[in-house]
Amino acid sequence: MARKARTARKSVARKGAAGKAAPRKRMAATATAAAKASNGHDTLREVEQLLYRQAECLDGKRWQDFIELFASDGTYWMPAAPEQTTGEGVPSIFWEDRDLMTVRLKRLTHPRAWSQRTAWGTNHVIGNVTIEREDARSGDLVVRSRFHMMEFRNDTTRHFAGSYVHHLKRTRDGHRIRLQRVDMVNAQGPYEYVLQAWV
Amino acid sequence: MAVDIGLDVVRAVEPDRVHRSVYSDPGIFELEMERIFNKVWTYVGHESQVPNVGDYWTVQIGRQPMVMVRHADRSVHVLYNRCPHRGAMLYGDRCGNVGKGIICSYHSWQFDTDGSCKAIPLDKGYQGTRLTPGDDNTNIKAAARVGSYRGFVFASLSADGPSLVDWLGPAKVAFDDMCDRAPEGEVEVVPTCFRVIQQSNWKIFLENQLDSLHPAVTHESTGRAAGEVEEEISRKGGHAPLSYHFLSAFATPITKWDAFQTLGYPRGHCILTGYMGLRPRDPDTLAYEKVMEKAYGKQRMEEILGVNIHHVLLYPGLSVQSPLQQLRAVRPLGVDRTLTEIWHFRLKGAPEAIYRRALGYYNLVNSPSTMVNADDLWNFWKCHKGLESEGGDWVSFHRNAGQDHETKEVTTSVIGTSEQPMRNQFKAWTQYMNGAH
Question: What is the ipTM of this complex?
């Protein structure tokens, strides 16, 4: 009994420090990840792989896989203006939780999504990946990168480029996206046609 | 043999059909610029876009680059964005504040915000010439007429023609409906403007705004996708935000659209009545109704919230969605290219939740990531391509032709899917092209 109570107290103390409760085993794993992160390479490599995987999902039109990279409360956000600090209550180009992402997926794959009836594809290149912040205890990360995307659709080429900021949360199955912010340098310009899928 | 009408706009329009060249002939497009866009009242912007003295927004009227600017006496002026000296455009960006005055970046001519010339560097050199300091032609040319209705600013490049209120006619309900829904009786712009270009003639967009035959076909995929997720959320015990309903309503079966009504007014303006059920009984709406009742009294509140509009089309350049506080301004760029500028507004004095509702629509339907207009724009491009072809000469507006009920003030359709709004638009088009103001 006494032993159990002590464990419970400890776990409360930990919760206070790390901002959330975590089972003991996972705490240990996180600590190891944090230790590795302190010399940088393993976490950076892991994160780069995640960004590349995400780009492959988009270019391969594997929409469900794309959505699953997000945490259950994850959000994909493309602000309407670079100075915005949240998508809550302000105009956005995209501001989608997983439910809205699912609407987009279902539309894209519907047999009568008429504008899908022309050949189109994209090519994403991701670079300049840096870890901006890391929570040593939780393993949560803020990662900044740059992208260049070329789209070829209906015999026309468009370019979109800008920065991603991924807020990642460490889970049992690796990192999941809590928030992805997408700032395109050409977000403010007039759009020749629209954006049907995530960038 | 293909029918070639050349630039004969009288032959181009018949009561139930129009010749394809009115969409595809660059010569007719130039005539439209001259006879329609250089004459009508064009929406320039909302007064709240330029709250401070010196604030400006650049805008295009027909082919003319213009600038809307707030003057020291608080009046809003609409000027040609052009220096009277050597013709340089004065502002190359979209918006800002003029600071100490309008200064041309080429030779530093300086102007007040009403366009009057304040200073010319080394002005002796112009004395006795046809550009003598003090002459009217040293001022920036202003739009011939500027008018404002409930904060919405319009300008006309023609000195002749009806007043703004007369020109709006019954279609001014677009602004009355939007502003009356604000407990304080006015709206304020949210300073984000999404710009989307359509690869099609401008008239194709206007016709589509009132075409209730298309949503169930064009937007079935999005409507169904949203409907499925909406159901899934309810199944899990949640409550999908109204935005899902905005999308799923597009999948309303084609047979039900006949129940709605279109109203055609003089000068091509039209209304499509509402179908999205924007007076739900959720707590947000109830809280809003309380504020509205306090501001207006119960009877007036009921009148205001009972107005049943989906779109108001102000021909030839503005589509207003008053119950969701948004509008799309149509700027033809060429015979086959059209820019839409998309804005939304806050109802002054209304609870935040009511704004969030409009915002949901703005983000999902009207932003560049729109799942709705994606399929419209695809259709518009295909329509335009088809109309460039010689596969046929005429565009059909035969649906329920001959059955419109016409009075002096309003033309009503027998059913919601009638092509009456298109016939009404072309009636106005013909009048303008034949020289009417």
Answer: 0.95
